[in-house]
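--- STAGE predict ---
source: upstream dedup step, 1 unique chain passed
mode: sequence only
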Amino acid sequence: TPGVGKTSLCESLASSTNLQHLSIKRVAKERDCCEGWDEDSQSWIVDEDKLLDAIEDEARAGGYLVDWHACDLFPETWIDLVIVLRSKSNTLYDRLKARKYPEKKLQDNMDAELMEVLLAEAREAFHKDLIVEMQSNDPDDIEINTGWIEAWIEQWTLQNCGAAEEDGHGA
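--- STAGE serialize ---
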C-alpha cells in the first residue's frame, strides 16, 4: 500500500548494507515500462512483462532491495524475503492525505490496507517462510525494522554464502 514506508525503509537499508535500492516506480518510468496513465487512480499503468524484462539481469544478479507495492508479479526465484509493511489506519490516512491523493485513490488504498490485500497477495505468491509482516507507523519502526532486516541479511549470508567462501569458491 502506498504510504506505509517502503521507500524510507529501503533507503535506510541501502545506507546500512551493501544492497542497492531498486525503486520499481522509478525503473518503470526511466525504462519505458508504462503503458499509460489511469485517470481514476492518478497513477501510471505498468506493463509488468516489460518491467520484468527490464530488471531481469539485476534481479538474477541479486543484491537489490525491490521497492514496490505488490510482490506477486516477481518470480519466487528472484526473492529471498518479502516484507509487508503495515500502518495504522489513522497514520496511513494522514500520510496519503499529505500526498494530496484524490479522495477515490485515498479510499481505494485505505480499503486495500484494511482488507490486507497486499498481504494476501504475498501469501498467495510466496512460501510463508519468505513473508514477514512489520509495522511502520513512526521513525522508531523504521529503525527497528532496519535492525531486524540487517540481522536477517547477516544470517542469510552466513547460511547461503558462508559455505562457498569457506571452501574457496566464493559467493
